[in-house]
From TrEMBL, chains A, B:
Binds 2 Zn(2+) ions per subunit. It is not clear if Zn(2+) or Mg(2+) is physiologically important. Binds 1 Ca(2+) cation per subunit. Seen in 1 crystal structure, it is not clear if it is physiologically important. Gene3D superfamilies: 3.10.20.580, Metallo-hydrolase/oxidoreductase (3.40.50.10710), Ribonuclease Z/Hydroxyacylglutathione hydrolase-like (3.60.15.10). PANTHER family: RIBONUCLEASE J. This is Ribonuclease J. It comes from Micromonospora maris. It comes from the Bacteria. Ca(2+) binds at residues 60, 62, 454. Belongs to the metallo-beta-lactamase superfamily. RNA-metabolizing metallo-beta-lactamase-like family. Bacterial RNase J subfamily. The gene is rnj. One of its GO terms (molecular function) is RNA endonuclease activity. Pfam families: Lactamase_B_2, RMMBL, RNase_J_b_CASP, RNase_J_C.
Length: 563, 563
């Protein structure tokens, strides 16, 4: 295995003529912000441009973007952005990239483009788009692209094969290999076999479930489980799922029809996405089945299903508001059955279980994935990845879309299936891989920070700022303010001490005031008048005291003002 | 179902003569800080006294204790603290209760008491103890206690039946019903049947897995899985588990012996607990199997197993330090196999997966519960709970040990198995339940806050303080300092603005200074000189500006000093 272990940026050498360069700017090392840049003959092709959702280590952050730094001065070279499917971790950063240059063409399937266009419309960006479908081919500059159907937890997902004189590269996008999918659109293993026969020089493939042995349960086994829940429910049914999981919503529609219930869609993205899916013929809505929320709330509970967002415990989502009793129209009551028909995205466990407990507290029966088979993953586990590897027989493998544990597990599968160990390129965001004369190898690194979106601003939140937030979040702060004479350094007012997030017991922590006064007196006696030095003295005095008295580490905020 | 829905404390009426009062002070509404107080004829019996570990909603907190408030003025009435087993969520708060009165007798099995004594020794408390075992009976004041073996993820766990003239109560403690446990010590279903025949008036039973259908996998199925991992491993093996899971450690010892490896124990609690287990004959250590860490590090990697703490991703644990490269003696290297033979306690997912990724990054193969059957739960799922309910046939059921979702699921199982719905008491910490004339009912509430331990202090961290921490942790703060003349209210120095955790871009946020100056000038013109009022003006000015300019919500910290 070729492995990236260089922590320091080591800029790559110039790309040899006839070589293809691959730079993952996101998606390797974390599940999210997927983005891969391909370079051939001075031209660039981008595959996916998604966001990563923050975890507890990124407090207060709304979104994490790929670092566009390495391509910002080459935007004119970008031939297109190919979008494999419409999930946020693949399309969510498109508006931020188009903010730099609005006319980069977007290439994707009908449903994918419809979702990204809806997102761009909110920012008044009208993109240049090129709709493609499975079986299609497009020449995008020097990149000859061929598209293949893949089965995933959103309709109309594509893999893309990229041909250049440097060789044939297959990027799977996200996929699984449900052999009996609801829409009959299976992952095109036969097409991949044809590519394999032609000779795939490099395979980039989804690693999300590479650690998990075996095969994914067919999506259609969810239907009967939903049916039995619907059969048992005596009152209202509320189902939450991802707002883009058209097939899951279809199954809810089918069960509702079967059990004589109407469905109301709840949540802005749910309503919008299902409208798009219906218009494109991807969602079959029997006449009269869907009703508005107003009508739904006036109907007897046993005749209604609410199809909602919020399956990941998001507090501001429709389900999150219902759970905390803050939804304007819906109050959870005994007799309600709530189904969370979704996976549990790692990092969301605490919020999801909080929502479940609140729903249970309000009297609802809550069915979730620990309790019944109401969700299956959208990503191929190890057994399916081996099928793909054995059919494609790639010369080089680059695991993508995963945390380090997933990428490494996928690398092992590659080697077990016969890829030469020195042709498995295990790398992470910012690594630069060149495919030259049929061999992929790591040649350097470009800068690839996490770029944080927080409120309206992008990029003013750094890692050291997040460290400050973590310190403040864990221990609060103690602020000490003192006014000194600018000439003599003598204390004119203060010191005063105030604290937030540190301790309720102000009488106890005011005990530090005499210590600060004493330290300042000593400083004055020593002729120290520089406010910066005085600030350091205050900081040390308070810091030492709080450690001895409390064994806590609040942020110490000394302010010395000169008058 | 009798259900607690009163948010406001509604003090209970006096306990009727001949009645038994039950007050859960912890363990109902969250998994942890288990503690139940029984009262009869003016005397109290406490069952368990544990801690709860904080989640992201309790930043900076070390531990959460039960609220001892309702019994603090009645410590002399406490006949004993019965400890069902030695897990932290059942014994961890004992030192904090004994800090109020050191001579309350502790009653428990040999292993349980040994663990709690080791914990108390660190605080130089030597408790009064009474060792009991399954089959034994003890009269503790008016409480006639009988002890029963239960099978759990720690040896020597007990259930306790409490007889008073008010009736027979069975408290299961934590249990599962592995029918072929490694030590042959099964949950005493036959004994419970005898109690059932006698007539159990109230059952308090473990709800942790009440949502999960079916039965737990026998513990002995882990052995072969470990064996196959050991057989495949070519280099060093590191196994992490709970430091009290003696049977899991025994299995690791057995596999090590089988595969010709020596074992070194790593982590203070692992070494201590396994020493206790060996001394009590609960852990069988073949001669020469266990070596010191020094010896282990000098041996060839294929001859060694390191048995470590840190299975929950704790950054300061032995495994946590190895993962981050901070362990003094052990450096993870390619060829290492790391096994996390443990459950994933909800709330710990992010840290556990971070440790796994770091280990994978350093080259280790990591086997965890998603990948192989290296752990089974210690708590009975629904299928086993039904066995218990059907054997005991309690007149009243009070689900304990669980979040709300678990308690409710357990309540449903109770009703399905034939407990009268109005005899199922679904309640939470602080609720007061009286058993009078064979009927258990909710009669009121006592105060039951979360009591936070943070560093050396207990109880000075409140919910509103945690809210401050969350605000600071999500958005940092902007501090504005201004010195004004105490007579005229005119600005003498400042305003200055500083920020932590808010934005790197100081030039941008200094834009607020002229706005603050302007607001203060206006205040001066209006004759406002009160520093508190001026502070509010500064707060409003900065708050409005930051919302408009950033759409963020940092804490606004205005300081107005008079000279």
């Amino acid at each position: 295995m070729t492995e990236a272990h260089n922590e320091e940026a080591q800029l790559p050498p110039p790309l040899p003529e006839g070589g293809l360069r691959i730079i993952p700017l996101g998606g390797l090392g974390a599940i999210g912000r997927n983005m891969t840049v391909f370079e051939y003959d001075g031209k660039l092709l981008v595959v996916d441009c998604g966001v990563l959702f923050p975890d507890v280590e990124q407090p207060g952050v709304d979104l994490i973007l790929p670092d566009f730094g390495p391509i910002l001065d080459r935007l004119d070279d970008i031939q297109a952005i190919v979008l494999t499917h419409g999930h946020e971790d693949h399309i969510g950063a498109v508006p931020y990239l188009l903010a730099h240059k609005a006319d980069i063409p977007l290439v994707g399937s009908q449903f994918t483009l419809a979702l990204v266009e809806a997102k761009l419309a909110e920012r008044r960006i009208q993109p240049y788009t090129l709709t493609v479908r499975e079986g299609g081919r497009e020449r995008l500059g020097p990149f000859e692209c061929e598209f293949f159907a893949v089965n995933h937890s959103i309709p109309d997902a594509l893999a893309v094969a990229i041909r250049t004189p440097a060789g044939l590269v297959l990027h799977t996008g996200d996929f699984k290999m449900d052999q009996l999918p609801l829409d009959g659109r299976i992952t095109d293993l036969a097409g991949f076999a044809r590519l394999g026969a032609e000779g795939v020089d490099l395979l980039l493939s989804d690693s999300t479930n590479a650690e998990i042995p075996g095969f994914v349960t067919p999506e259609r086994e969810i239907g009967p489980v939903l049916d039995s829940i619907f059969a048992k429910a005596r009152g209202r049914i509320i189902v939450a799922s991802f707002a883009s999981h058209v097939h899951r919503v279809q199954q809810v529609f089918d069960s509702a029809l079967e059990h004589g219930r109407k469905v109301a869609l709840i949540g802005r993205s749910m309503v919008r996405n299902m409208g798009i899916a219906r218009d494109l013929g991807l969602l079959n809505i029997p006449a009269g089945l869907v009703v508005g929320l107003d009508e739904a709330t006036s109907m007897p509970p046993e005749q209604i299903v609410l199809m909602s967002t919020g399956s990941q415990g998001e507090p501001m989502s429709a389900l999150g508001r219902m759970a905390s009793g803050d939804h304007r129209h819906i109050t959870i009551a005994p007799g309600d059955t709530v189904v969370l028909a979704s996976s549990l995205v790692p990092g969301n466990e605490t919020s999801v279980y909080r929502v479940i407990n609140r729903l249970a507290r309000a009297g609802a029966v809550v069915v979730h994935k620990d309790v019944a088979k109401v969700h299956v993953s959208g990503h191929a586990p190890a057994g399916e990845l081996l099928y793909l590897l054995n059919v494609v027989r790639p010369s080089n493998l680059m695991p993508v879309h995963g945390e380090w544990r997933h990428l490494r597990a996928h690398a092992r599968l590659g080697i077990e299936s016969g890829v030469a160990p020195d042709r498995v390129v295990l790398c992470e965001d910012g690594d630069v891989v060149d495919l030259v004369e049929g061999r992929a190898s790591l040649v350097g690194r470009v800068k690839s920070r996490y770029v944080y979106v927080d409120g309206l601003a992008v990029g003013d939140v750094s890692e050291s700022l997040l460290t400050e937030r973590r310190i403040l979040g864990d221990g609060g702060f103690i602020a000490t303010t003192v006014v000194v004479d600018s000439v003599t350094g003598k204390v004119v007012a203060g010191p005063t001490v105030s604290a937030k997030g540190f301790s309720e017991d102000a009488a106890a922590f005011n005990a530090v005031i005499p210590l600060v006064t004493e330290a300042l007196n000593r400083a004055a006696a020593d002729g120290i008048t520089d406010p910066h030095q005085l600030q350091q003295i205050v900081r040390r005095t308070v810091g030492r005291w709080v450690n001895d008295a409390y064994r806590r580490r609040p942020m110490i905020v000394p302010t010395v003002v000169e008058v």
